[in-house]
Write a structure and sequence with these properties.
The chain has 196 residues and is mainly β. It contains no helices and 15 strands.
Length: 196
Amino acid sequence: RNIVLPASVLTVGDYAFAQCDALTELTLPEGITVLPKRLFSYQNGWHYGAASLFKVNMPSTLTTIGEYAFAGCPSLKSINIPASVTEIERYAFSETNLEQVTFNGPVHLGSSAFSGSNLIEKVSIPAGSVLETNCFRQNLGRNPYSSIGSEKSTHLKEVTFEGKITINGYAQFWGCVNLGRINHLSTELPEFSIDG
């Protein structure tokens, strides 16, 4: 249920804890720089994550959270992203029941990084961050690929850009029908890619 990796562990392999449904908490040691792809989610169904996982203690050396790493972990309610993390790859936290995400430094949010995590109500994006397509997309209605609930409703109400950011691709907040306020704390406009 609770795993504390020793300091001698410097890397963790793909799928290391995939569908470990009894696991509730994982502590990663200083020195680990990458959380690999599908760390907690199953290969043939990314929406089947570790069912009971609610807490991951991340080291200050972490730089990258791999694709689908936490996808479909229904018990994960909050996540505190260390300032050292500069890359959150595609679908890393998709289809979770996250209610709160805290970024402590600029980060590149990959395509659909938090898509389908419909319970997030407010999010603050640090200056210097990059947002790719669908990174905070919220899914409406029935999602046939999700094991989380039968109907999806969208909760995101407020987004704060703490400074100048870069918008790549499109539809970063697609489906966020309750998004009523965007705070842009900069005198510089966001930088938009050609596709954006």
